[in-house]
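Entry 12.
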Amino acid sequence: MSGEFPGAADAFVVPPMPPRPPAPPPAAPDAVRAVAVALLNLTGLGLGYVLLRRWIPAGLCWAATAVLLVVALPADPDGVPAALLVAYAVVLGAAAAHGAVTGLRTRLSWPASAPVAAVLGLVLLAVPAGGGLLYGKARDEATEQMLLDRLQRADDLVRARANQPFDTAQAGFREALAVYAALGHDHPGSRAAHRLPDRMTAYYRTVGAAYEQQKYCEAIAPLKYLRTVPDRMPKQTLGALATWPDPRLADALYACGSNELTGGQDGWTGHFGELLTAFPRSGQAAKAEPAVRSVVDRAAKDVQGDDPCTAVRRLRGLGTQIRGVAAGAPAVADALVSDAERASRGAASGGYACGVDQYRDGDFAASLTSMNDFVRDHPHDRNRARAQMIAIAAQIAQTVPAAGKRLPTTDSGGSIQVTIKNDSPDDIEVLYTGPVTGSVTIKACGSCSAYSFGATLALGGFHPCSDSGKDYPQRTISLPPGTTYFLHKPRGASASSPASDTAKLRSGYIYTECAYTKKGFSVGQ
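Predicted 3D structure (tokens):
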């Protein structure tokens, strides 16, 4: 082209632009070159585009790889999100396909030989493959570290509760066990799982520490809990630990139950019962019945000691308790039943000693009950006669406490005659105690009646048993000198309460007692 400036003296001519060199003609189609470019793009580094000098698509490949590396590194157990992997695979596939189409008719900037480029692409594919392997190993290591961290947290839970009561620590122990079980079942080949046998040994010793400290009653609950652990853990993880609690639990049940038995506590029945049921062939179970027998023997001896009533109550309780244990222990049921029967017999025969002790302590009502029971249950016992005398004296002493100052004997008779007449429409039982003790019953006076309260206050004097026209039923007893306490008890409905009398008997005198009834009040004498 050329141009002129109008009106210029001299014309200025713009030289023409040099002609643009013609674009190189497309290269002949080369399938090997197309494959080489595709392989180089599959490396994720965009090298196929680089050799074609296509920088924009190469940059896109670099950006996609950079995003993947930022997300993937450092490796963690969760790995790369699946969506990102799919997207990256799509990008690589598209780059390989586009590179193959472009490289089919485009010459490479280097190397000149397409086969060499194809070989280079195959070699460089080792980069993403090796990266994947390394990433897999890094991810596995991250998973191992995560599992080891879980193991450490479980260990910390166990250690933190080592000195706590089991009721308080149990939740933490269960939480730690859940972690151990998950490691064993879900990750059996992990380093954490390989450490589980040692950890479980420490776990068992920590949970069951009360047994090693000889706190046998406290050890029972944790040892029973440890017996449930094999239900949750892989067998190969526990080994001999699966049966570790059994002998210790049997020992704890026996030791705790034995201490409770000798200490008079009721809990022994449950512990011995569980021992005999769960471990019937253990050495501890074999010691249970002899321990029961020994306690029964000791309690039977205590009946003759300073506190016979406590011993009697103990024997009664043992009889009932032992029968309860025997019902669930067929292997030693016969021996236990025999122990229970001896305890019951000891309690029954000890009723006499208990009644004597109650009498001496002034508990006359309790003594009366004990003696009546003894008399009823032991018709041939050598102490039966005296027990009857003590029962009579105890009745009197409930009304006249002074009558209970001395323990009655079985002595009888005396040189002083005492005649007791009954001026009452009811049969009268007369109890007496003093130098001798006894009782007589006098039949009712058929022609007599209860006296009114006013009659007993007559100004002219009140003289029962003085009607010469009546034949009063009477009994005469012989008593020794001294103070004798009488208690008259009506056997009918005319009076509601007994009456008492105290007589100081002296030799050379004849004494008469008269029993009568006041209407609505009591027997008098």
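Annotation: The mean pLDDT is 85. The CA atoms of residues 299 and 314 lie 7 Å apart.
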